[in-house]
């Protein structure tokens, strides 16, 4: 034991003999030995004042109080002619902290963590804080699977009662799971059970997934996966008896042993409902997922309680209790359930509170709410409200809480918190082909103009082929009941002589107005009218069909368009969709008041389905058809095209379908496209903003007659990366054609990128 510290302890322990004198009155108090500490600080902690009577007990209290400050490593008391003299030796201060040998962490980050343990430069040195900081540092490495880490500390005394601290770290290698054993399983093989676990022995993907690195939270999650598997398969008495984790002396290999008892498989003998169901008992019985003669399933049991609870919550009974009381027959291995229902008291919403919206106006959020203040609690309406706010696309996070109002058993508040994200974007699109090189386009969009929820967008395309300027404005709540109104103005110049499509040039100027009318929560219809004037130019390479069209209808045409659309959107999120559908049908008709006579019909359908918590299946299909009427042909510059991002990746944009004699794309009167895509979060990254996908695309464009390129669908397969970055959405895809023909033009790598503001 340190002699100085011993002296301090002895002074404290044997203070009574040292003060075995008659009490005296303190005439003055003097502090000696302080260097950094102010005398006033000592006096503030000292429980004795001038004029007090000093005795043995008060002396002991004084010494304990000064030791308790943590400023001193030795405290002594002396008396000289009624003057109390306090002799102290201060603890040293920390002059510097140095960390050596660290690669896995930032040294500044480690020093910041040490502050929470009480260890920082300029602070009083405390060996307890040093030990805590050392253990915390080891725990950080253990959390990364480095169980062999060693941390040595060196303390050097400096002048002016200071010390320097040096941490020498030997990180070591990551400990890997060498073997996982499951003992006690008979019904299912160990191989099948190990497939349910995320922890595993090293394989070719472990460098990326880190699934061969042990951690207690990962093991707990895997044990719950095993338990859920058995409990959902009928094994009501399944139990995990114990788990043993052992590590080799060199700290490199970890062995995990899991001892289980499966028990017998139970079937459901009987299901009953009792209590106050409020709604018709038959309606409650339809919600029950546990069926007689089925194998017991804990998942079905939980789902039943959830569904019944939500049904009662839709009537305002937010705290309904649905308790499944089991009755086991261990001889027959059967279980009967009595769902006892207690609805409790109907609850009303007192207030809806919104927070986090620094830019977006409250009214923009409140108008999406379907749960109203003063109305009874309806869990369906609250979920719908959250979903509608999320679909606005203005927020990166939308969270809803429904706390009870203190002192009122029948009232709740709805607290909606949002995290705003950038809703303005400057987007840049790019693609590469051998004939054109890089082609760029750009646009500026603000989806939440001045926090009003209104949308304005400008598009500028300065590519070699298309030069477009457009402005659109939409007010989603032109009327209070949700009718939207928008305006569009555009000028489009196209130089197809520099593209893969048939040769012509065009210049179009137009504008229009459109309206949207909600039918219900998920559906809406839209209609509008616009006018456009187009001028067409041909070249010597223009196909005969284009020349015939211009000769018949002229090089300048005016069109008045009427549009009608229908849409249905049941997605759970507009950004990170995991389930739901999107359907759109759209009709465009050239009204017979001007030159043109044609129509175009389009239908799109997207379907999302969660395969697991990490994987989502998306099926996407679209179809379009168009033609002229009234004895006129559909303008060739209104043809359908396919190929590239948004249709069939791996082929050049607009390159599929019929071709002219110069092997340029003509487009067509019919188009069909489809894709199957499996979307997953990036392994090892919790942030949803980065996702991977594997896809199979297919599509075709058909024109009149038997033209080259018209026959058959084209297919491709590949992978894509989507990153919702702080700079904006980035999308990369690499597609490989599966049935390319000699006339096809390919483009394997395609991407788009944007910048948010």
Tell me about this structure.
Among the domains are: 88 residues, membrane protein fhac (Ubiquitin-like (UB roll), Roll); 78 residues, membrane protein fhac (Ubiquitin-like (UB roll), Roll), CATH 3.10.20.310; 86 residues, Roll (Ubiquitin-like (UB roll)), CATH 3.10.20.310; 76 residues, Ubiquitin-like (UB roll), CATH 3.10.20; 73 residues, Roll (Ubiquitin-like (UB roll)), CATH 3.10.20. A hairpin with an 8-residue loop joins strand 30 and strand 31. 18% of the residues lie in helices and 42% in strands. It has 757 residues and is α+β, with helices and mostly antiparallel strands. The radius of gyration is 38 Å and the shape is extended.
What descriptive keywords fit this protein?
disordered N terminus; Ubiquitin-like (UB roll); 16-stranded antiparallel barrel; 757 residues; 14 helices; single chain; extended; alpha+beta; 3-stranded mixed β-sheet
Question: What is the secondary structure topology, with strand pairs?
Answer:
Elements: H1 3-13, H2 15-18, E1 24-25, E2 28-32, H3 39-45, E3 53-54, H4 56-68, E4 72-80, E5 83-90, E6 93-100, H5 107-116, H6 127-143, E7 150-158, E8 162-170, E9 176-183, H7 190-195, H8 206-209, H9 216-231, E10 239-247, E11 253-261, E12 267-275, H10 281-287, H11 298-313, E13 321-329, E14 334-342, E15 348-355, H12 362-366, H13 379-391, E16 395-401, E17 411-420, E18 424-433, E19 437-446, E20 455-462, E21 466-475, E22 484-495, E23 505-518, E24 523-537, H14 544-553, E25 556-569, E26 580-590, E27 598-610, E28 615-628, E29 650-651, E30 670-681, E31 690-702, E32 714-725, E33 728-737, E34 746-747, E35 749-756
């Amino acid at each position: 034991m340190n002699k100085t510290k011993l002296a301090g302890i002895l002074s404290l322990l044997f203070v009574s003999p040292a003060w075995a004198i008659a009490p005296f009155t303190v005439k003055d108090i003097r502090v000696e030995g302080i260097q950094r500490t102010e005398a006033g600080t000592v006096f503030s902690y000292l429980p004795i004042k001038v004029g007090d009577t000093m005795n043995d007990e008060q002396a002991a209290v004084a010494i304990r109080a000064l030791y308790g400050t943590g400023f001193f490593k030795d405290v002594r008391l002396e008396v000289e002619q009624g003057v109390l003299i306090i002799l102290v030796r201060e603890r040293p201060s920390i002059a510097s902290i140095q960390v050596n040998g660290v690669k896995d962490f930032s040294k500044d980050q480690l020093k910041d963590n040490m502050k929470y343990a009480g260890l920082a430069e300029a602070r009083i040195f405390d060996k307890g804080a040093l030990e805590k900081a050392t253990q915390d540092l080891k725990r950080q490495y253990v959390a990364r699977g480095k169980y062999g880490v060693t941390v040595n500390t060196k303390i050097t005394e400096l002048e002016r009662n200071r010390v320097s601290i040096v941490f020498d770290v030997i990180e070591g290698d990551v400990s890997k799971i060498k073997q996982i054993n499951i003992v006690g399983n008979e019904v299912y093989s160990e191989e099948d059970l190990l497939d349910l676990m995320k922890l595993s022995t090293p394989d070719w993907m472990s460098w990326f997934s880190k699934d061969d690195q042990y951690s207690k939270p990962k093991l707990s999650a895997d044990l719950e996966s095993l338990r859920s598997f058995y409990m959902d398969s009928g094994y009501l008495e399944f139990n995990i008896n114990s788990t043993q984790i052992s590590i080799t002396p060199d700290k490199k290999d970890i062995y995990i042993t899991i001892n289980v008892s499966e028990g017998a498989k139970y079937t459901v003998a009987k299901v009953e409902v009792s209590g106050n169901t409020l709604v018709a008992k038959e309606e409650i019985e339809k919600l029950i997922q546990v069926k007689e003669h089925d194998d017991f399933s804990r998942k079905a049991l939980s789902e039943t309680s959830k569904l019944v609870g939500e049904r009662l919550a839709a009537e305002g009974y937010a705290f309904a209790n649905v308790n499944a009381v089991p009755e086991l027959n261990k001889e027959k291995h059967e279980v009967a359930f009595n769902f006892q229902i207690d609805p409790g008291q109907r609850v009303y919403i007192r207030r809806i509170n919104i927070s986090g919206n620094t830019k977006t106006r409250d009214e923009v959020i409140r108008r999406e709410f379907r749960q109203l203040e003063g109305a009874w609690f309806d869990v369906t309406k609250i979920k719908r409200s959250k979903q509608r706010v999320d679909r606005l696309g203005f927020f990166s996070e939308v969270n809803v809480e429904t706390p009870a109002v203190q002192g009122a058993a029948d009232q709740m508040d709805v607290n909606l918190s949002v995290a705003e994200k950038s809703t303005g974007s400057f987007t840049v699109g790019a693609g590469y082909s051998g004939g054109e090189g890089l082609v760029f386009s750009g646009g500026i969009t603000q989806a939440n103009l001045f926090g009003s929820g209104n949308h304005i967008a400008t598009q500028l395309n300065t590519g070699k082929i298309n030069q477009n300027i457009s402005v659109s404005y939409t007010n989603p709540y032109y009327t209070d009941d949700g009718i939207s109104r928008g305006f569009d103005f555009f000028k489009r110049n196209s130089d197809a002589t520099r593209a893969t499509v048939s040769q012509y040039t065009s210049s179009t100027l137009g504008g229009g107005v459109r309206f949207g009318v909600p039918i219900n929560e998920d559906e809406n219809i839209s209609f509008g009218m616009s006018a456009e004037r187009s001028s067409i130019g041909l070249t010597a390479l223009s196909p005969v069909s284009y020349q015939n069209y211009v000769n018949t209808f002229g090089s300048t045409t005016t069109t008045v368009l009427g549009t009608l659309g229908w849409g249905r959107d049941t997605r759970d999120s507009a950004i990170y969709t995991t389930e739901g559908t999107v359907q759109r049908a759209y009709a465009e008709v050239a009204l017979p008041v001007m030159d043109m006579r044609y129509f175009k019909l389009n239908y799109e359908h997207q379907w999302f389905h969660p395969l697991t918590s990490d994987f989502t299946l998306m099926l996407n299909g679209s179809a379009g058809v168009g033609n002229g009427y009234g004895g006129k042909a559909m303008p060739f510059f209104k043809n359908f095209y396919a190929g590239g991002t948004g249709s069939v990746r791996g082929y050049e944009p607009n390159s599929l379908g019929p071709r002219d004699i110069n092997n340029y794309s003509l487009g067509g009167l019919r188009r069909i496209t489809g894709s199957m895509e499996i979307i997953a979060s990036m392994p090892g990254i919790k942030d949803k903003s980065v996702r991977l996908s594997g896809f199979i695309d297919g599509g075709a464009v058909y024109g009149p007659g038997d033209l080259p390129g018209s026959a058959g669908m084209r297919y491709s397969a590949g992978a894509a990366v989507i990153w919702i970055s702080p700079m904006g959405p980035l999308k990369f895809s690499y597609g490989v054609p599966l049935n390319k023909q000699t006339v096809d033009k390919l483009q394997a790598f395609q991407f788009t990128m944007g910048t948010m503001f």
